[in-house]
């Protein structure tokens, strides 16, 4: 890796990281039951920051999807790094066999977002009162494709994928329904999920107004994770021209992941500036900036849009109420399914969804030439 080229980047990263508290790590395993899918049992290994004082803090939540025939123990680098910096990380451990049901796994990831939120109010949970109000979906390989599909089903603050794979069903259409800002990581030497066949089409299909494609030059497929027999065996016979080590690839990866998550989940504008400066000075990656709303940051906090929308209750069995920021009135509301089919339109702030079948829907709210899309679950 080009240490001299990256010295500027890592010095900037060190300045921000130096003052950040490092947390000790604790974990527990829990099996949740999804009553909407015939009481499907979904198990997760949840890592969280250890409380070192009587002061209770709230931590953003990351739900992580594993690769094909891989498990949470292959991603020790993620929970060691992210939890120590003040994040709760839930690894969904289902569908770890060669017969993995990709659709079910995508639904498991979406389901876990809400279940970890609910743990905030569960007095018997180790993370009772520790769960913050922001969250993200992350995933590697199969888990990356599943995270994309899950992001089309549930509201999160951001989506980050590592060598995402197309799944055993149409993954492109759900990608078009993803509105969250996103990062897609790729390795130029990845022969397992080839970039031209997997990463790039999925990235291009994302409906995000702001997204980045980051390709690590000479990067491998399996090097995002720790050594894993199944993954490394497959890569040994498929990937050519890998020119970085595993530790180097992970160092490059976290140089972007940490400031991006601090920006999206902790509202740290300086971290976003660091993220962009890193891209502009890093000869170890090539990238595409797919953001339509770029702006310069001169303050610690990001400017907030004056147009905001709240939709609830969510989930619902009948009506939803739509509340907008003071200076905006609801002009039109459209309700789509997750595949883009229009089901309802209204000009009311209260919309009756009782005629819809159970599932995930998108509510698009129009006002003064602006639109905001929210996801809603109909039970």
Give the arrangement of secondary structure elements.
Layout: H1 3-18, E1 25-34, E2 40-49, E3 59-65, H2 76-84, E4 88-92, H3 102-119, E5 131-140, H4 142-151, E6 158-162, H5 172-176, E7 181-187, H6 199-205, E8 211-216, H7 229-236, H8 246-266, H9 269-281, E9 285-289, E10 309-312, E11 319-324, E12 332-337, E13 342-346, E14 350-352, E15 359-367, E16 370-378
Parallel strand pairs: 3-4, 3-5, 5-6, 6-7, 7-8
Antiparallel strand pairs: 1-2, 2-4, 8-9, 10-11, 11-14, 12-13, 12-15, 15-16
Describe this structure in words.
The protein has a nine-stranded mixed sheet with strand order 1-2-4-3-5-6-7-8-9, sandwiched between helices. About 6% of the residues have low confidence. The chain starts with a helix and ends with a strand. 28% of the residues lie in helices and 28% in strands. Helix 1 runs antiparallel to helix 9, helix 3 crosses helix 4 and helix 8 runs antiparallel to helix 9. The chain has nine helices and 16 strands. The protein is of the alpha/beta class and 379 residues long. It folds into two domains: 265 residues, Alpha/Beta hydrolase fold, catalytic domain (Rossmann fold), CATH 3.40.50.1820; 70 residues, Immunoglobulins (Immunoglobulin-like), CATH 2.60.40.10.
């Amino acid at each position: 890796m080009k240490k001299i080229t990256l010295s500027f980047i890592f010095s900037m990263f060190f300045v921000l990281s130096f003052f950040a508290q490092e947390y000790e790590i604790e974990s527990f395993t829990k099996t949740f039951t999804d009553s909407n899918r015939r009481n499907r049992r979904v198990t997760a290994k949840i890592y969280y920051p250890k409380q070192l004082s009587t002061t209770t803090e709230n931590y953003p939540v990351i739900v992580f999807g594993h690769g094909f025939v891989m498990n949470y123990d292959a991603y020790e680098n993620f929970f060691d790094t992210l939890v120590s910096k003040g994040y709760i990380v839930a690894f969904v451990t289902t569908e770890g066999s060669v017969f993995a049901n990709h659709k079910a796994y995508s639904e498991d990831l979406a389901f876990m977002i809400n279940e970890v939120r609910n743990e905030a109010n569960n007095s018997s949970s180790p993370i009772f009162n520790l769960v913050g109000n922001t969250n993200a979906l992350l995933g590697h390989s199969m888990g990356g494709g599943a995270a994309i599909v899950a992001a089309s089903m549930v509201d999160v603050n951001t989506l980050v994928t590592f060598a995402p794979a197309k799944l055993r069903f149409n993954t492109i259409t759900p990608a078009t329904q993803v509105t969250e800002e996103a990062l897609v990581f790729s390795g130029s030497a990845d022969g397992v999920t080839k970039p031209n066949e997997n990463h790039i089409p999925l990235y291009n299909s994302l409906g995000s107004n702001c997204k980045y494609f980051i390709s690590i030059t000479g990067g491998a497929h399996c090097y995002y994770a720790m050594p894993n027999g199944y993954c490394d065996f497959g890569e040994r016979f498929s990937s050519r021209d890998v020119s970085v080590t595993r530790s180097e690839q992970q160092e490059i990866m976290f140089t972007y992941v940490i400031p991006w998550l601090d920006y999206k989940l902790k509202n740290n504008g300086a971290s976003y500036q660091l993220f962009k400066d890193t891209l502009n000075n890093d000869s170890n990656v090539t990238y595409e900036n797919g953001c339509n709303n770029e702006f310069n940051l001169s303050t610690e906090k990001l400017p907030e849009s004056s147009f905001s929308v709240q939709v609830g209750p969510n989930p619902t069995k009948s009506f939803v109420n739509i509340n907008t920021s003071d200076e905006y009135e609801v002009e039109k509301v459209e309700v789509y399914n997750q595949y883009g089919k229009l089901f309802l339109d209204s000009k009311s702030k209260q919309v009756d969804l009782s005629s819809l079948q159970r599932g995930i829907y998108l509510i698009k709210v129009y006002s003064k030439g602006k639109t905001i899309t929210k996801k809603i679950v109909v039970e």
